[in-house]
Each structure stands twice: as C-alpha cells, then as structure tokens.
Amino acid sequence: MEPNYPMLKDMLDRLFEGEASEQEKEMFRQWIISVDMSDADTAVAAETLQAAKQEMFYRIVEMPRNTKPETRVRKMLKTLTMWKAAAAIIPLAFLSWFLLNRMGKSRQQQEIHYTTIAVTEKNVKHITLPDGSEVWLNARSRLEYAQDRFSKDVRCVRLTGEGYFEIVKDDTRPFVVASENIETQVLGTGFNIETYPGETEIRVALVHGAVSVKDIHTNTHTLLHPMEMLRYSKGSRKWGVAPFSSNKVHNWVQGHLIFEELPLTDVLDRLAYKYGLSLQYDRELVKHKSVTGDFAPDKWQTVLDNILFIHKLKYITKNGTVYISKR
Predict the structure, then answer these.
(1) What pLDDT score does 268 carry?
(2) Which of 128, 173, 282, 310 has its Cα between 20 and 30 A from that of 267?
(3) How far apart are CA 261 and CA 27, in angstroms?
(4) What is the tens place of the pLDDT at every residue in 180-206?
C-alpha cells in the first residue's frame, strides 16, 4: 500500500499542534516504536534520522496514555501499519518535522552548537567524549552536549534514555549529567543512569567513586556510595536509596535486558522498541504489575513469553501485530 502523503501530513500537524485525541496519541506512540529507520532510502545520515524518531517519540510518550482505541483510530492504526512496508516516506516525514523543530530551536539558540549522539541500532553504542570519558548508550537513548562549552569550567551533558559513564577524573572541571528533573555531578567515577521519557522513575546507580544527585526543583542533594541506586519518582519528586549489583550494568552493556521492579507497561515499551514490535493490549491488564529480571539476548518470542508468563498473560500475532491477553 502506497502512503497517503496529505493524510500523513495532516496527522503529524494535528499531533504537533496538540489537536490529536488521546486515542490518536496512544495509537501513534505504539506505531512509532515499531518503525525501523534502518530501512530508510535516503541520503540523510542514519543517526540524524534516529534522533528525529526519538524526538517525536519522546514528545508523544510524555503525553497521557489512554486505554482502548476508538474504531476510527483503529482504522488509522491499520493504515499506518500497512505503510510500514513503504519505508522511504516514513523517515522523510520524520526528517521534515525534525528540521523544522531544529530550525525553531536554532533561532532561540543561535550561539550554541550542540553535538547529538543517538543510538541508531537496537544494540549498545560505545562513545568517547572530548575529555576521554567513555559512555555506553543503550537502545532508545541520546546524549547531547554544547561543542564549544564542554571542555571549559564544567563538562555538562544531557542524557535521554540509559547510559553507563566512566568519567576521567579532573578536579578542576566537574562532570554533570542533566536528566529531566535531576542533575548528577561527579569528578571521576563509574555510574549508570536510566531516564526514559514516559517512565515514572529516574534511576542513578553507582558502581565506583562517588556522585552527588540534585533535584533541580527543590535544590536538595544526596550523596551515593558504591553499590547504591537512587530511585527518583517524577510524580512525587521523592527519592529513595537501595542496594545495587554492578553485574546488572555489566550485563546490559553486553546486550541483556535488565529490569528492576520496572512497571510492565514500561517493560513492554522497551521490548517493542528493541525488537520493532507493534503491541496491542488493554492497559487494565498490565496495571500494577512490575518485572524484575535479567533476560539474555534471544528471540523476542522467548523474552516476551518469559515476561508474560510471570503475570499469567499470553500473546498471539495477527497481521504483524502482537496482541496480549489473559492466559
């Protein structure tokens, strides 16, 4: 099926202008997770396309979720699913939005030039920053920093998603990671941060050294010690500290899926993104359910089976969509 350009543009316009219904936002959220940008037939760099997809996804997942789509929305979802076969138009649509968005930002920030590193594959990406510090970015993650300001008084980066940091010690230039409501400051250490848009918590886990975590809204601080994890609730703006195993960081860098009391809804979002799945389920089925576990890289069917089995759920596939129901 060839994509209908005016219809696609109309949907994107209404979404970005805040005129889309809650059901349409939910439909688009599920669809965009499953779009594979690697199929793009365009000269634009894959990393740029991936950054565009992530920005659109983050904008959508920060919107409230709803439950059962309306009939009209189901028809739109069916159309979008069929368009996945015509991959070229999708990256171009994302790119058009991305450039317009960036142009708007650039008018406000003409003097600042940012370096953006987005994970283009569904696997872990290792990068080295200008100061020699190393970062491992998980799937669906992005790191940004100002090119001409990074190496001055403070080495500041912004993280979206999950990243493990090994920071080069420099007493004169602290290293700061900004992630939504909190800032994590270090001098030289190894730590992990999970800060996915749409999820309820930000998590900072310290492997070695020391870090100071600050809530930018309340201006309160806490100091983490090795093998401790801070869990910050975005809703209540409260945090707690719990024990943490460094093996979990080692395993996700090797491609494992690591969940620590993570809501099942968030787990399904991560699976959908990693494996390019289109998932359909009633939100009431997964409400108040969480997952803790270490899942080695495997076929998506095996991983999903293991996760759903815990909660007495099952799945079937139909026309490329995975439907989850009670066992």
Answers:
(1) 93
(2) 128
(3) 26
(4) 889 999 877 899 999 988 888 999 999
Cα separation, 35 vs 92, in Å, equals 13
CATH class of 113-254: mainly beta
244-251: long-range contacts at Cβ-Cβ below 8 A with a sequence spacing of 24 or more? 244/205, 244/206, 246/207, 248/205, 248/294, 249/164, 249/192, 249/205, 249/207, 251/294
Polymer length in residues for the chain? 327
Question: Which pLDDT value is given to residue 198?
Answer: 80
Residue 37 and residue 49 in contact, taking contact as beta carbons nearer than 8 Å = yes
* Cα atoms found within 13 Å of the Cα of residue 100, Cβ hemisphere only: 10
Same fold: 113-254 with 256-326: no
Check residue 66 and give its pLDDT: 44
CATH number listed for the domain at residues 256-326: 3.55.50.30
Instruction: Write the CB contacts of 299 (distance below 8 Å, at least 6 apart in sequence).
Output: none
Helices vs. strands in the chain: H and E counts, helices first: 9, 18
Q: What is the pLDDT of residues 11-46, one digit of tens each?
A: 667 766 667 776 667 666 666 665 555 555 555 566
Specify the DSSP class assigned to residue 41: -
